[in-house]
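job 3f2a | input accepted
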Amino acid sequence: MSRIGKKAIEIPGGVKVERSGQMVTVSGPKGTLQLECRPEVEVKVADNRIEVTNPTPEDRHVRALHGTTRALLSNMVTGVSAGFQKDMQVFGTGYNVKEQGGKLILQVGYAQPAEVAIPKDVKVEIKTAAAKGNDVPAAFTLNSSSKQSLGQFAAEIRKIKPPEPYLGKGIRYADEHVARKEGKAFASGG
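job 3f2a | predicted structure (190 res):
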């Protein structure tokens, strides 16, 4: 049986969980999220708790679904009550970021600025619009109630210009470590 799946999810105040058939709807101050649960896993909502049970613990596939379903429901409860946040940085001389007309516009060393449409459930907050050299990055924060939507959007942004290993220029997560390489060493000839 899944160790994670066995843990019950406590429902905090202000969060409402409804179940109709296989559809679970979680609503709270940050929004509303829905998940259609697989029929192999049973979801029970009672006494301010969500419990996910596995009727066939001997089936390996169902054990995996058991833990995954519990984790998805837990992320939904956390998302509608507290929300999720991802900090991002843009390193590089002349690199900048701005929000305009529902799009995130990134100037990251290409001839044309890269434009990415911002999903409806993601909010962008720009802290520092332009990078100053390779030491002070442009910084922005992504906020959302959906962990999946937030992670997908952040990955799409990072994919535009991943950090390179020599100078570290590019788009990265704030907590990401970029392994740096030493450049070419010039030997002095005699």
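job 3f2a | The CA atoms of residues 5 and 67 lie 4 Å apart.
job 3f2a | closed
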